[in-house]
Amino acid sequence: MKNKVANITGAGNGQGAFEADLFAKEGAAVVVTDIDVGQAVKVAQRTKQNMELQ
Question: Using CA atoms, how far apart are residues 37 and 49, in angstroms rounded to an integer?
Answer without folding.
Answer: 18
